[in-house]
Design a protein that fits this description.
Length: 313
């Protein structure tokens, strides 16, 4: 854990150093830059895309031959929980993106009922994305979408939840692999994205990775994600997102005598993204995360608000 913490700390310093280089370099800024909103916003995991799922775009204002940076802060409030996420990303040559994100999840009533009031789950995420084909903007008049592949290495910090995760056979670290295809119909003002993610994460990793208790499937699952956005004007978009969640903990929970107490649901949102200037974008969404540890929340659906701000250079 200490080794990983040093790694992520060093990673954020590396991002900051790269950002400083980008800001100091005369080539860091495009004369006109990207079209507004076509670089996406920062996801809760740090990669450029929507709020919940990555797209085959590279974040920042930089275009080909340039380096750009983004920084973001996000707050999600649901019926019983709260999530704060922040991070930074570096994009180079409209081809490669390196991202880092930190998540702080307030367990609310669940932590209290587990005998750990004030329990917060903290997760570090290091991501790399490479656009391997197509270009969402330059090829907007073609059927060929932009295609990107990505990796996200996740590490959940040690907390009072560790014994529970161990009993379920879940680990505190894991790696997601994904491929995204993004198609922008520029004339119609429509963006469509599809992502396939190979993952062992439970609730995006906040409840660990994998599970073995009761014969729960401990292998990778391929889960779909999708986004559709409509550009109402050049600086304003509305859209919807869907992200499939693994439900392997329900099997482990049944074996532990919890019934459906660890059941999970797919994540969804309806969002509005506004980019009042080249460097600033704001995203507001209604989120529906479904059931998260329903054993402690009277099976209430976790719905609420999502607010995110991003600075791009």
């Amino acid at each position: 854990m200490q080794r990983y913490s040093r790694f992520t700390s060093h990673g954020f310093k590396t991002i900051a150093f790269a950002a400083a280089l980008a800001l100091a370099s005369s080539g860091a800024f495009a004369e006109k830059g990207k079209l507004l909103l076509t670089g996406g916003v920062s996801t809760i995991d740090g990669a450029a895309g929507g709020g919940l799922t990555p797209w085959a775009v590279i974040g920042s204002l930089a275009t080909q031959g340039e380096m750009g940076v983004t920084a973001h802060a996000t707050r999600v409030n649901t019926t019983d929980y709260g999530l704060t996420a922040y991070g930074a990303a570096v994009g180079w040559n409209e081809r490669i993106e390196l991202s880092l994100a930190k998540q702080d999840f307030d367990t609310g009533i669940t932590g209290a009922l587990l005998g750990a009031p004030g329990l917060r789950l903290k997760q570090d995420i290091v991501g790399v994305k490479v656009r391997v084909a197509g270009d969402a903007v330059l090829n907007s008049d073609l059927l060929m979408p932009a295609i990107a592949v990505g990796v996200q290495s996740k590490r959940l910090g040690s907390t009072a939840l560790d014994p529970t995760l161990t009993a379920l056979g879940a680990k505190r670290s894991g790696t997601d692999f994904y491929v995204s295809a993004t198609k922008l119909f520029l004339a119609q003002g429509i963006l469509v994205n599809g992502t396939l993610r190979a993952t062992k994460a439970n609730q995006n990793g906040l409840l660990g990775f994998g599970a073995t208790l009761g014969g729960a499937r401990n292998s990778y699952e391929i889960l779909p994600e999708a986004s559709v956005a409509f550009l109402l004007r050049k600086d304003l978009a509305v859209g919807v997102e869907y992200r499939k969640m693994s439900n392997r903990l329900q099997v482990a929970g049944n074996a532990a005598g919890l019934g459906d107490g660890l059941q999970s649901s797919d994540w969804k949102d309806i969002f509005v993204a506004w980019q009042p200037s080249k460097k600033l974008s704001l995203t507001l969404a209604y989120v529906d995360l479904g059931k998260i540890v329903p054993a402690t929340t009277a099976k209430r659906s976790q719905t609420g608000t999502y607010l995110s701000a991003q600075l791009a250079f």
